[in-house]
Predict the structure.
Amino acid sequence: MTPSLQHVDFLVVGGGAAGYFGAITAAQARPGSRILIAERGNQPLAKVRISGGGRCNVTHACFETRPLSSRYPRGARALLSAFSRFQPADTVHWFEQRGVPLKTESDGRMFPTTNDSETIIACLESEARNAGVELRLRCGIEALRPSPQGGWLAEIAGSNPTVIHAHRVLLATGGWRSGPLATILEALGHEILPPVPSLFTFHVDERWVRDLAGLAVPQVEVSVLGTNLRETGPVLFTHWGLSGPAILRLSAWGARELAQVDYQFEVRLKWVPSESSESVAPLIQRMRETHPGKAVENTPMFQLPARLWEQLVQHAGIETGERWNQLPRNKAQELGALLLHSELAVTGKSMHKDEFVTCGGISLKQVDFKTMESRVCSGLHFAGEVLDVDGITGGFNFQAAWTTGWLAGNAMAQLALPA
């Protein structure tokens, strides 16, 4: 089948958060433009739909640019200037102007007050539709090259193969998985840093860990032995090992380092982050004095969950029913040691639910973060995870998508040829 030729002002490749935001911004900044979003999948905004357990973690209540940029293991310096132009406060205002107020939870994450990601999706789809943005699904990009007449020619595969001529192109294809995009961009002279998972949970084969599935511990210091990786925060036991904010942040900062060892490493968990060996020993001695007749496994210290305390007591070699006044010194010392540094072997990883986040992508030195335009190819812009930018969990990846999409959309509108 001979592809048909279609002319648009702006072609947006990728119907996710960054692509939609870029398309809407361009359309509203330059009314009357013809803008097409080409999405490879069956539905747009798929990651928005599943984010935050279906509630959509839109952004994070961090409104100072420098602390905000520090939440990005890759891209912090480039995003510092970008956030000075569009940051979480602007995101909140953008949605509230369109009848979608956001709320802030205790950990700083921000969600729509409806607690439903469909609210965000409906807002974005409505804005795009009202601005005249066209959406085409099941259309993957197969080739991209400069046009002899200026602008770009993109070959779009699908039920109706099309060659699209666009004055400017925004690539916002999300995380790197498969397809010809990397080959296309490398042929155009772009450097692509190899993608590896950025947010993932830890597989631990220890039976006692899996037996605690569903248990959450509010504050744990987690470190990777042999590295400088260390995080403190909630840890969640799962059927396959360890998850929770502390684990996910650790996986983000250590994405490349942990990939290099094929996700086989040792973690140390400090169940009482505020304590030390000097403080724990006297506290154990006090338990022996104040609760002499009570069974050790029935009297948790430091407000630790009872199920976790029982496992630590058992691993210290303390027998069921053994009382505090019977506790030998060596077992007391072992219990104190486990409270401060329990070590576990990690044997693999799982992605965090369905939220596929990668580090890697277009080298940031080849992108102008004022316009999100390629420094290699004029008229080609980037936004979202196609860049070597990723944040820790908590709404930061979406904020990078909104910011880079907004910058790219405004730049395309401003740099377009006169109508």
Remarks:
- The chain has two domains: 4-196+355-415, 200-351.
